[in-house]
Amino acid sequence: MPLPSPLVSVVVTCFNRERYLGEALDSLLAQTFTGHEIILVDDGSTDGSAAVAARYGGRLRYVHQENRGASAAKNAGVGLARGRYVAFLDSDDLWTPDKLAVQLAYARAHPEADLLYAHGRQFISPELPETERARLHCPVEPMPAPISGTLLVEGATFRRVGPFRTDLKVGIDVEWHLRAKSLGLGITVLPETLLLRRVHATNSGLTEQGERRQHARILKEHLDRMRRGRAGQSGPGG
Amino acid sequence: MPQAKRYRVNAPQVVAEIMGGEAIIVNLDTGAYFSLRDTAAAIWEGLERGDSAARITAALARRYAGEPQAIESAVHVLIDELLRESLIEPDDSGDADTRVEPGLPEAGERPAFTRPELEKYTDMADLLLLDPIHEVDDQGWPSANAQR
Fold first, then answer.
1. Is pLDDT at B36 greater than 70 in this prediction?
2. For chain B, what is the radius of gyration of the CA atoms?
3. How many CB pairs below 8 Å do chains A and B form together?
4. Chain-chain contact of A169 with B135 (C-beta, under 8 angstroms)
5. Is the CB of A219 less than 8 angstroms away from the CB of B12?
């Protein structure tokens, strides 16, 4: 007998995160709303990530693919989603137990909200030695987090915006968000803190300047789109 | 502001790129981003090269039709704004830039000098503040791809 369709498909993407993956998955299984499926896309991990996933047995759908990057992994997960809504969690981050419940309640009451985000709070991964912790920048206050880790969106709306860009290494969420914005979709950032973002040694932003320049390119595309939109509005015939 | 002073981009928290004649500058510390077009982009290009205000002014005076004093003052106003937004900082590491080549105006009809403008946007601050620390990774994504 086919399984009933879940309301939400949560796409978890993972590349060599055996250390954190279990905690991320536990935070999904601890959700107070339980009508969700978990799709774990392992993007070619060579560490023990697959073994961690195996511990969860039938509680998640595990897909292994050749390493193609975070965007490709998320897109692959969306392709497998059976739920009306899709959501995303990076394998080093955590959701609060009420993440889905809060957002689904809001979505039911506000059908005009196409993209639902929330606040996020950052935390320094507890295993880090004191010297490393001192080096990391980690604001303690919750921040508005319009990023994929807090996003709840109907699959049909996600497809309207299109997949995450696989040619980018930084600014992937920024670029996707800007595309959604340019379509005039209703965007809401809920005041609740629903995502806990892990700050650890390997994501401290010590990136190549060349890669960071991708932000400038994404924002240039955004400004060009906005200017074209304004020119269209003020053109002949209104 | 001494005329021969050089400046440098306030890296790594500020990233900039010139595309299609427009300079887009992102301050990853504040999440604000900026657009410089036309004369403003030309001034930014000069600053990135390490040119002094005097040298930039001279280059603009060759390229555009305008009062040299008005051009000079506009260059200083923009540099002040860029400093205020922490996009550039004085570069005292090397010699002052004393090269000034007034030269002849470019041949043909020169476009009129327009006041350089720094356009500031803050609509993406939330995302930009959260973005840089997360998606790039020395061991996991995406450097693994970059090594392929």
1. yes
2. 18
3. 122
4. yes
5. no
